[in-house]
Write a structure and sequence with these properties.
Blueprint: H1 8-31, H2 38-51, E1 55-56, E2 68-72, E3 75-77, E4 92-101, E5 104-113, H3 119-136, H4 145-156, E6 162-163, E7 169-171, E8 178-182, E9 199-202, E10 205-207, E11 213-215, E12 222-224, E13 230-232, E14 235-238, E15 245-246
Antiparallel strand pairs: 1-4, 2-4, 3-12, 4-5, 6-10, 7-8, 7-9, 9-14, 10-13, 11-12, 14-15
Helix pairs in contact: 1-2, 3-4
């Protein structure tokens, strides 16, 4: 299946979908605090998305039971919100969510510090976030897809962190997951050429220890195999004739 090129009209719909998701993330950042349950974060997220006249695209996607993935500490992605999972001082919490606006999807993730966290945890969050920005320096028409992957890997690798290989970014548009897959690790092959109108969800997932991950018994929650901390940073990005446009910021 080919990578979809969005028309000017579709790009405007993607921009609005992503703008609204950016607002959702800004509001969710304010509710992260010690003592809140991951289920309460999910309730707030769904209310916010629906208040903008949009639909949560994660809810019931392939059976996922919530509107936001809330992944704490060693949880890499897809943490299922629960009433009995209470956020603690010193935790790091990754929120991954998206919405549908007039048929067009957006997707973004952020990792948040809860109160005072260790310097090591803060460094992991900062490196993961910056690796996204290093990657999108290569997200220009005429470059190749894996130029993005290689730039992310080149930035992260000197820190000795594990770049998750089992999970990757993706294209996005009228479906949450479209071609192409976008790895965050280095590749020799170049991948497809980037063209204006492509919309890509670029999302480094970085572990403090091993790159290896495991799935818990709920068949959703992914954790680092050595239970080291994990961070996640994602935006939906538009390839243009010039600089890439980060739609979810």
């Amino acid at each position: 299946m080919a990578i979809t090129i969005k028309s000017p009209g579709e790009i405007e719909l993607m921009r609005e979908s992503c703008r609204l998701l950016g607002l959702v993330h800004n509001e969710l950042a304010k509710v992260i605090r010690p003592g809140i349950s991951t289920k309460e974060i999910d309730r707030v997220c769904e209310e916010l998305i629906r208040s903008y006249g949009c639909t949560p695209n994660f809810l019931h996607y392939q059976g996922y039971p919530a509107s936001v993935c809330v992944s704490v500490n060693e949880e890499v992605v897809h943490g299922i919100p629960r009433e009995d999972h209470i956020i603690q001082e010193g935790d790091i919490v990754s929120l991954d969510t998206g919405l549908i606006y007039r048929g067009y999807h957006s997707d973004a993730a952020r990792t948040h510090a809860v109160g005072q966290i260790s310097a090591e945890a803060q460094k992991l969050i900062d490196v993961t976030r910056q690796s996204f920005f290093e990657g999108i320096k290569m997200a220009r028409a005429g470059n190749h897809l894996h130029d993005i992957s290689n730039a992310i890997a080149a930035y992260v690798t000197p820190y000795g962190y594990g770049i998750v290989r089992d999970l990757v970014g993706h294209g996005i548009g009228t479906s949450l997951h479209e071609p192409p897959q976008i790895p965050n690790f280095a590749l020799r092959r170049r991948g497809p050429k980037l063209r204006p109108g492509m919309t890509l969800a670029i999302e480094p997932m970085i572990n403090m220890g091993t790159e290896d991950v495991e799935w818990l018994d709920d068949d959703w929650t992914v954790v680092s195999a050595d239970h080291s901390l994990s961070a996640h940073y994602e935006n939906t990005v538009l390839i243009t004739e010039g600089e890439p446009e980060i739609l979810t910021l």
